[in-house]
Amino acid sequence: MNLTLHGLDYPRISKENTLQTDIRQIDERDKYDIILANPPFGGKEQPLIQKNFPVESGATELLFLQHIEKTLKNGGRAALVVPEGVLFQTNAAYQDVKKKLLTDCNLHTVVSLPAGVFLPYSAVKTSLIFFDKAKRTKDVWFYEVSLHEEKKLTKKAGITEKHFEELLKLAKKRPETEKAGLFLFPRFWIADAIYLLVITTHMDQRKSNFVSLKNTP
């Protein structure tokens, strides 16, 4: 119906699985400067599809992360929605994918979203991750989106632009303040914590280390 309303009465649509492409065979001409995505998560792929990726996993979110990282040009930027499990899972596949994002890309920002963002379709808690291929990760800025006056998000009272106003104001300077849930952690702390991308994990280490984050190599 949407295509018809826009004058596309006979569109050529081919049904394909993005993950059926072996990412080792992706050419430079098939890469992009900017990627914005909310890839499917929570699904499982067959072993044959998994072989298209250096890190084999049945979890579709890990396969899409690898696909997107591979199709991003050098100097390109990406912003993705991921289930929060990606941040705290520590099995080998999750560690390997997050290690690549931290060492081969600049994974500079993790934004934790409130529960219920995708209701009524999914109750899975999600986060946003931002990375580029301009340099290697030095540190990661963590930000939690607060609900302000609302107690929780619902189908009728969902997330709005207002919830992101503070984030947009602070993102360039990336300040730190415990009250607002803003923290900056160096890459080597995350690596030492088996690539957990969770604020609480690094807060304990922060309290016991008198390290100037601005001077971390």
In CATH, the homologous superfamily goes by the name Vaccinia Virus protein VP39
**N-to-C CA distance:** 54 Å
Rg computed from alpha carbons, rounded to a whole number of angstroms: 19 Å
The backbone outline, from C-alpha atoms, is globular
Given this structure, which CATH class is correct? Alpha Beta
SS-based structural class? alpha/beta
Might you state the CATH topology name?
Rossmann fold
How would you sum up the major sheet? 6 strands, mixed
Please mark out the parts with pLDDT under 50 across 5 or more consecutive residues, or reply none: 209-217
Helix % is 25-40%
Tell me the strand order in the biggest sheet: 1-2-4-3-5-6
Describe the fold and architecture:
The chain is of the alpha/beta class and 217 residues long. It has a single domain (2-148, 159-211), classed as Rossmann fold. The protein contains 8 helices and 6 strands. The chain has helices spanning 2-5, 47-50, 60-71, 85-88, 92-104, 165-170, 187-192, 199-207; strands at residues 32-37, 72-83, 106-112, 126-132, 139-144, 183-186. A 6-stranded mixed beta sheet has the order 1-2-4-3-5-6. The longest helix is centred in the middle third of the chain and has 13 residues, at 92-104. The chain is globular, with a radius of gyration of 19 Å. Mean pLDDT is 86; it is low at 209-217.
